[in-house]
Amino acid sequence: MKIKFVYLVTLLFLASCGHKQFDETVIGEEGYYEDELYLDEAKDMATERPIYRETETILTDLIHTRLDVNFEWAKSRMNGRATITAKPHFYASDSLILDAKGMDILKVSLDNKVLTYSYDSLILRIHLGKTYTRDEKYTVVIDYVAKPDERATGGSAAITSDKGLYFINPTGSDKTKMARLAARTVFVHDGCW
Fold first, then answer.
1. Is the pLDDT of residue 74 over 60?
2. Where are the alpha helices (DSSP H) in the chain?
């Protein structure tokens, strides 16, 4: 019995330690609960709200990507053919929209039919010729030339360039850096990005 009493007293003591009493809490000018003893607005409250950055809406699921590329080392260019199998993520769509910075788009096709597209040096919008549902897959082939050194680049404090493709000592002229190793590369990606 004595052990239960000591246990109960200890629990009550611990439960009361550090808890604020109702009389310490008041409603502030803007209707928020504030604690007069612990809140120092100058130190504890941010002077500005952080910038809200929403996530991009997912329009398309990339199912499979195959890149066949070769390089023009002297010009720091990559010639490529992208074969992309995709489907609309949720809503039916008649377009495929891709990031494509600093490229020349040579041809876009679907089932050996040339497709129309618009390109503003940053975004490639391909018109698929029909509306696809989220249960229908399609495969688009894009022939292009990537020219990362021929465009103005952006970046931030952490990532100083947004080129995406970098040529380091492509001609082998700088003997302190490794020169190119391969003239042809194939990249295959399965799954959504």
1. yes
2. 2-16, 41-44
How far apart CA 54 and CA 59 sit, in angstroms, is 15
Residue 103 structure tokens: 């490229």
Chain centroid to Cα 15, Å, comes to 47
| pLDDT tens digits along 133-162 | 999 999 999 999 999 878 776 766 666 666
Count up the domains in the chain and report the number.
1
Q: Is 52 among the domain residues?
A: no
| Contact between residue 165 and residue 78 where contact means Cβ atoms under 8 Å apart | yes
How big is the chain, counted in residues?
193
Residues 94/72, Cβ–Cβ less than 8 Å: no
Residue 80 within a domain: yes
Q: Is 14 domain-assigned?
A: no
97 is a domain residue: yes
pTM, two decimals, is 0.63
Helix (H) or strand (E) holding 6: helix 2-16
Q: What is the CATH number of the domain that holds 186?
A: 2.60.40.1730
